User: What shape does this take?
Amino acid sequence: MKKLSVIIISYNVQHFLNLCLQSVKQAIKSIDAEIIVVDNHSSDASCEMTRSNYPEVILVENKVNFGFSKANNQGVSLAKGEYVLILNPDTVLAEDTFEKIISFADKQGKFGALGVKLIDGTGKYLPESKRNIPTPRRSFLKLVRNSSRKMEYYANQISENKNAEVPILVGAFMLLKRETYLKVGGFDERFFMYGEDIDLCYQLLELGYKNYYFGDVQAIHYKGESTQKDIKYLKYFYGAMKLFYRKHFKINKIYDYIMSFGIRIWFWVKYLSLLFLREKEDKVQSVLYVGTEENIFTKLNLIYPNSQTFIFPICTTRVVSRFDDLEHLNRLIGEHQIQEIIFDSESLSFSRIIFFISQLNRKGLMFKIKPSNTDYIIGSNCPIGKGIIEKL
Assistant: This one.
């Protein structure tokens, strides 16, 4: 038996999937693990890219889009790992991610599921990394912006950097034992997209398992890229929440009406915001390339012809503290009024890239990553919009 099976469900996210797989490959180097990609009938070159670049990956090519729940159940049915990791294709992991979370999970009794600290493409912490049980009352109060700490929808009673038990995790990154996943029946396939992670975590709690938030590890989740392809996906969320409440909570007709009304309001607010959504399109006047490839630096000057482009060469001859590099970066950002930073994963570890993005997030910067052996840079400036891919 392998120690870990990484399950990735992909749908038209070729470039983000490639970046994700690069980071996962680095993270499983010291672990007996396998990677399973289930493609939900992508119309881009996701399958060709996976077969060509990652022949060791087990690839399932669905002829229709089965949705998130059914596709994950497909992947787990093929898995041979003691643990399974449910992972979105628009995530980037640090090299020591699996060593840390599996070491922690191995020591827990009645281990249910585990999630980590997720940040978006701008380095902003994603509060859905840890949530309380979304009871009808708590969800309704969230809709009306209740500030009571005890009734919060997100588990803000737990610091984002701490490790602690938590009721609900997010399906973008969820570690479970395979036998536990199978015991609860996997994801409920009535949830096409959204709500299935809440439902699974809730079932684990009902069976006496413990779910954990592990703040010692952080990962990038571009978020909007794999889920918000179209406004129609809001309808899946709308249906998922109605299904969850009717499945788990005995509520009377009046409360059912109030919750349905609240969800409907949420739907239209999101609908209108997405209708007018635009990625941040500020004119970039100064760009910083963090890497060692002179040819990439030259190509960036072509992509940003109206910008000043600076280079922060990574030292490869000696070990330099990431905090020393961070101090140097901060100094350059201030001196040259940097607006966008390009991190080259050919020169930098994913661990260091994630660290820099998380530490620099309050400066209003935009970030891109140059994956190894590619001719593009990739990133996202908006948590619910499509990502940005620039050809070099």
